[in-house]
Amino acid sequence: MQSLNLRSRANTPLRRTQEDKLARESDVTVSSTNVTPYREYRGFFTYILSWLVLTLVMIWALVPNSVLEYCGVYYYPSKYWAQAIPAYLLLAMLYAYIFIACWNTEVKTLALDDLRVITDEHAVIPENPEEYVWKAPSGVWDLPLGLVNEVLYDD
């Protein structure tokens, strides 16, 4: 039985394949060249700060006023805001969701008689579309709608 030596395996360079090279050169791959050296510190600080703020808000919202005054905390907002702010934020999110759905449906959707519903300037139409109608295409092509309707619905 062969034993695994993880220390020596971790130090060996990875083999570069053609797929790895293409993946690294792709514009879809997220590049790590923009990472600043202080990004980790900012992330950790943001994490700690958000937990601190959450803890303080929970203490302010859940601890009775008499305990806060006993600890010397007299200047704080009304506890009404501990419930009102999250409720207002949730309603604002709901209204924004409904507004965006209505905007996309009523304003951004094209009319059915508009030619841009069928095709646009980015369409890739083959030179001879008839050869792609009766067999599976080797790539992604946009077939003209009239030709597709003729094949599907013509008797």
From TrEMBL:
Name this polypeptide is given: CIC11C00000001814
Positions in coiled-coil regions: none
Region called Disordered, residue ranges: 1-21
Keyword Transferase assigned: no
Keyword Signal: no
Keywords tagged on the record: Membrane, Transmembrane, Transmembrane helix
Transmembrane segment boundaries: 44-63, 83-103
A Gene Ontology term for the protein's cellular component: membrane
Compositional bias segments (type: Polar residues): 1-15
Domain PIG-P: 39-153
Pfam families listed in its UniProt record: PIG-P
InterPro entries attached to this UniProt entry: GPI_Anchor_Biosynth, PIG-P
Membrane topology classification: Multi-pass membrane protein
Classification lineage: Eukaryota, Fungi, Dikarya, Ascomycota, Saccharomycotina
Location(s) in or outside the cell: Membrane
GO biological process assignments: GPI anchor biosynthetic process
